Fold:
Amino acid sequence: MRKLALFISGSGGNALNLLEACREGRIPAEVVLVVASRSTAEGIAKLRDKGLLVAILDRKDADSDEAYSDICLGLAEAAGADFIALAGWLRKLVIPLRWEGRILNIHPGLLPRFGGPGMYGMNVQRAVLLAKETESGCTVHLVDNEWDHGRTLAETRVAVLPGDTAETLQQRVYEAEMDLYPKAVTDFLRQTR
Structure:
């Protein structure tokens, strides 16, 4: 059984979704650790209530992005994680060679156009609407050392409807994320045995 660490910064919705998929056998993996980037992340209590070990590591507790990343990845290694799924993680990770190709992320937009620093949550959907796009969506990609840049593994497109606000569009994109991420993680694991 593969071992998965989940990295969160917010509500933990994607993390809970992946955990449920693992426990139901839809993802052939066991969640061994959750790392939260801030003590105020709403997902901490939710994931602890599910019996998971949650480590809280604030970026200000490290001297650099490299040092912070080493601590976070070291915790995943100590827990025996084979791979990591970022689930609403909003901190820069510096990826060392030993972790290349083993960290996945879900982004609430179509990459590469709606990615990069500052492009998270509602900011993505505001940018989509401002650009007068006809669709938004979500992308699962491998994480590398650039923001929202690694190889795309899967994506789902979501139509922009007449009268959409950033909030209504974000809700539909979030629903697409709940479907896409478990499938993409499962496909990734099948391809990387």
Remarks:
- The beta strands are 2-8, 29-36, 54-56, 83-86, 103-107, 135-142, 152-159.
- The chain is about 35% helix and 20% strand.
